[in-house]
Specification:
This protein is of the alpha/beta class and 310 residues long. It contains nine helices and ten strands. The relative contact order is 0.17.
């Protein structure tokens, strides 16, 4: 009998990624633009039908806010979100119903934190915070291979930040006038630049670095991780990660936060190309097969037997 396959899915603000894996080998991979929930459901079901063997289960690393409590009757439902058409959608439930398999879900950043802790930039760290600064801002926490969830999942992107002196830019968050996402995520950065590059506009660069530094400081104070892995398109700007780390130190002041946050290499770049997908696989295997799969291999370095669109 053939070894079963697994489906891993990552939903993002602009694209949806999917893999079918068997053992430690990636068999199929594809991607689609993020449009409507129905389009995502149909594309993923068609993709799953291409699996060369039965699917044992699936995992989704999803953008939020989303219900992540498996005991909740609305497990997997998207809550109020600015993404048109997605509020109230439940891709997890739809896939479970149509594919006839168990489907587990966690946030994209929680899943990425799991993957980076197991096989990436946080390998060897007992706790790791993963932050992405892109179309939005999200943060997840992995502690000894488990993610932080409670009544909800963390929403660190929407923590309030103090305005950088002289900064009067409007927040791009429709929920909050001065949160990290509204002032420092991709749309907020673009709104400041009028087509220019952030590194060429010193005032904007300084403000974004300060807001991200405040965010990192809030993570240190709230979670006290051994390391912060920070990625996303905004942090591709040369020098921004380092500048934000300095502003984190400024925000923390001289308060005692322990040696980890003061040490070199505390805020680092991700190492895995698709940490969300890697984490979705961990989420699926753990939920469906239990603790026996906590050490299942990741697939970041596996060769593709077949590939879809890159």
């Amino acid at each position: 009998m053939h070894e079963p396959c697994w489906l891993a899915v990552e939903t993002g603000g602009t694209k949806i990624l999917a893999r079918i894996v068997r053992g430690d080998t990636v068999l199929l991979e594809d991607r689609w633009p993020t449009t409507s929930p129905q389009a995502a459901e149909d594309a993923l079901c068609a993709f799953a039908a291409r699996a060369p063997a039965r699917l044992a289960g699936a995992g989704i690393a999803a953008f939020g806010p989303i219900v992540v409590d498996p005991a909740a009757p609305d497990y997997g439902e998207v809550l109020a979100t600015p993404k048109p058409g997605w509020t109230g959608a439940n891709l997890r439930l739809a896939l479970e119903s149509r594919l006839g398999i168990g489907v587990a879900i966690d946030t994209d950043v929680n899943a990425a934190a799991l993957a980076e802790q197991q096989a990436g930039a946080g390998k060897g760290c007992a706790s790791l915070a993963y932050v992405t600064i892109g179309t939005g801002i999200g943060a997840g926490l992995a502690i000894a291979g488990r993610t932080l969830t409670g009544a909800m999942h963390p929403e660190l992107g929407h923590v309030p930040v103090l305005r950088y002196p002289g900064d009067i830019a409007a927040s791009t968050c429709r929920f909050h006038p001065s949160c990290a996402e509204g002032l420092a995520a991709g749309p907020a950065v673009q709104a400041r630049l009028a087509g220019g590059a952030l590194e060429d506009v010193p005032e904007a660069f300084a403000a974004i670095a300060d807001y991200l530094g405040q965010l990192f400081a809030a993570i240190v104070m709230a979670w006290s991780p051994h390391r912060i892995v920070a990625g996303g398109g905004v942090l591709a700007v040369p020098g921004l990660r380092g500048a934000a780390t300095k502003r984190m130190a400024h925000a923390l002041g001289s308060y005692g936060v322990g040696a980890a946050a003061r040490g070199a290499g505390f805020v680092v770049a991700p190492q895995l190309e698709h940490a969300g997908l890697e984490g979705a696989l961990i989420v699926a295997r753990r939920a469906i097969m239990g603790h026996a799969c906590q050490s299942a291999p990741l697939l970041g370095s596996a060769g593709y037997a077949e590939s879809g669109h890159s």
